[in-house]
Amino acid sequence: MAKPPDKRRIPNSEMGPMMVSRLQGLSPQAAQQMMATAQAIESGGADLAIARLAPLLASHPDHPEVLRLHAGIQNLSGNFTSAIATMKRAIAQRPLDPLYFNTLGAIMGQASDFDGAIAALRHACDLQPDLAIAWFNLGVMLTRCMRRTEAMEALRRALSLEPNYMPARALLGDMLRVENRADEAAAEYRRVIAERPWTGMAWWGLADLKTTSFAAGDVDQMRHALRDSRAQDSDRIAIGLALAKALDDAGCYAEALDALAGAHAIARRRRAWSAQVFSSGTSMILDAFAPAPAPSADPGAGFGVIFIVGLPRSGSTLVEQILSSHSKVEGAGELPDLPMTLTEESDRRKQPYPTWVKEMRPEDWQRLGDRYLQRTGRWRERKPFFTDKLPANWYYIGAIRAMLPAARIICCRRDPLETCFSCYRQHLDNNEYARTFNDLAAYWRDFDRSVGHWHLLYPSHVREHAYEELVAEPEATIRALLAFCGLPFEENCLHFHENKRAVNTPSAMQVRQQLRSDTARAIRYGSLLDPLRNALGLPPFQT
């Protein structure tokens, strides 16, 4: 999100002559309106921010700082395309302003254009090497691209500039968790909380460790932090979800649900999600690939690529951990390269996906397949197979089959009630469908019909994998997974929990444990979850 001019929250970015120059051409009253708008953006109130910015847009429609805040509001509303265009208009007037490139990079990251985001943020860092927030945002984007070494360097640079910059310290804790250094991660989160107890991502970091319990007094401290005037909406969302985890651990299930509902209400106020629009988009994709287009001119394209897709919290990280325990498989994690390859083609054709699918020829699909393989080449440097475990890639199975006909696609399934409830309890970035039970159920139904369609059409290349079957019969299921991928059985895959690889998902700590049969949560909530059961078309809870 575009950051407002608030010296308390943005270290060394708005000080001195640069801040004054950004407000040139504005009257004192207009400058005050700018500050009020910025505060509304920071707190996450898009409607209030729009109301406060409206007079400025009318009186100063081309002022670069007005445009920057307008881009922030568009970003907050989920209108990323317009936000990027607006920000580029502002940059045209201030091409040497590092904060403007920082804002552009942050918005591009929200739009999942990580290549563009990294380029913009690196330029911001070049323009002002002591701009801590740009180094922090660069670390965020590199983390999302699974470029962990570079991400750690950027985060350390941010902290060297601003040792007390809490978001960077909280993210550093996340990186320690990824490296299986849980005690060090917990200690870092605790240090952040001790200094600024309203830092939401530090509380959520503790909750997400899962192998540790909250200390006595944490619940009261989180409740106090929720009321702290210094907390932003993003903090309150994370704290509310962490509080729900603590209450769940204590067996206070009704209170846990109340905390979850409160956190999601704040998130939904910031950015809405339309189940109807998403479902229409899913139908458009299925229609665009009916009949199936002639695939890549290279029938062997994609050999060795294993896509693992599904809803979050459905066992996809576990499948990747199992496969990456094989001597021939590199576990790459949640790569953004497939959707970015398709976005590049949309930009080239100036048409959104999937409207251009019918125009594609085999050589076009081959070109896109080659582009994907070029982007992911580093994951094949050590081993011939690699996993691409971005859950939402189920949306693009038709494109995968056309681009990379030799690739294998594993669609992870888990009991829909458990999956949806687990998504509801998790802090998921940009997964706005997880805010209400009805939206979760609608998203699951679109996933269900899409995956069922592709498995029926391509059973030799699209496998439906059931989490419950893995728990019930681990060896047989693991052998079947390996056979589907064209891999010989290896004993190490049965001992996946001993794999020391870095895991950059919410399941990082769980997949380092042996399989457990006691992970179901819904039954503990009994009839309290009947609204979710009803949304999924399931019968009410029975004792």
Précis, in short:
This protein is mainly alpha-helical and 543 residues long. The protein is built from 26 helices and five strands.
What share of residues are in beta strands?
under 5%
Quick one: overall form?
globular
**Low-confidence segments:** 1-17
Measured between the Cα atoms of the first and last residue, the distance is 46 Å
The CATH C-level name of the largest domain is Alpha Beta
CATH topology of the largest domain: Rossmann fold
What's the total count of β strands? Answer: 5
Largest sheet: spatial strand order: 2-3-1-4-5
Contiguous helical run count: 26
Name given to the CATH architecture of the largest domain: 3-Layer(aba) Sandwich
Query: How many discrete domains?
Result: 3
The mean pLDDT is 89
User: Structural class, from secondary structure content?
Assistant: mainly alpha
Query: Biggest β-sheet, characterized?
Result: 5 strands, parallel
- Write down the Rg: 23 Å
Helical fraction: 55-70%
Characterization of this structure:
By secondary structure, the protein is mainly α. Helix content is 58%, strand content 4%. The two termini are 46 Å apart.
